[in-house]
Specification:
With 325 residues, the protein is α+β, with helices and mostly antiparallel strands. It has a domain of 139 residues: Butyryl-CoA Dehydrogenase, subunit A, domain 3, CATH 1.20.140. The chain is built from eight helices and six strands, in the order E-E-E-E-E-H-E-H-H-H-H-H-H-H. Strand 3 and strand 4 form a beta hairpin. Helix 4 packs antiparallel against helix 8. The longest helix has 71 residues.
Length: 325
Amino acid sequence: MKADFEPQADTTTDDPLTGTQHPSVGEASEPAARSMTGQGTGRAAGEIGSVAVEIRSVNHRGLRINLRMGDRLAALEGRLEQLIRGELNRGSLQVNVSFVPAAHNLAAPINSTLVLAYAQELHRLRESLMSDDPIDLAALLQLPGAIDTSDSGSADPETVWPLLRRAALAAIENLDQMRAVEGAAMVDAIRADCESIEQQRVRILELAPAVVEQYRERLEARVSQFLQGRGIDFGPLDLLREVQIFADRCDISEELTRLASHLRMFAETLVTGEAGGRKLDFIIQEMFRETNTIGSKSADARIAAAVVEIKCAIERMRELVQNIE
């Protein structure tokens, strides 16, 4: 996978409220995001036979592994699970393992003693019934226990393990490639939403200073209209005091600064893959908290509309992050 954010000619943006600069959310680097959904297969063959491993994965809060190996390889379940846990971090995995012994291991021995006993008993029964029907050897071999299948196709688990390990690693690699492809597509969608959030954040930064001034003008006009002809003196300091109270109540500069910080942290985590989807989900919660506060403090319809756009983008990101390893 390539960069999850395109290189930017200018990686900083000016904050109209504070005059400081914030790094852009589009710094380029090698993304490490992987989807938790995928499928991988692997095969390995040797003198004793062949092993096939299939892994299917869906999203899960942790790493859950369900193994289906059959009785022949049951002794290797613990080793295989340990191998998978060393390679994968999250997901609900369905792992199917099949072992096909080599042809020379498939011959099953005949239980001669039991077959002879069957034949003798049939001979006595034929004499008792005074029957001339011949005894069918093929029919005798179909009787219970005539062919010993207890060791048919069996193999020492220790000799099977190298094949199983090779097949499992191939399946994991195949699964990881599929996860990476889907993860790259998810990163592109998340990048677009991050850019949308940053655009709306900058728009709110540009609108915020005018909100207080517009409130002052509206308040002054209403007070003047109300006091006109009533002989009541209302000085500029009283007006300034009311405007200051309003400004303090609707100040969103800290929330906007923290939102920018969360965006930067989100982009960095998405690139490095540190802590994976869990950390991304936590950052999204913090972004949503700051956005809610901005919306509750806002007294401007244009800022409220920008907040709605940010929330929509965050919800889209949340759905995608739920499937990141």
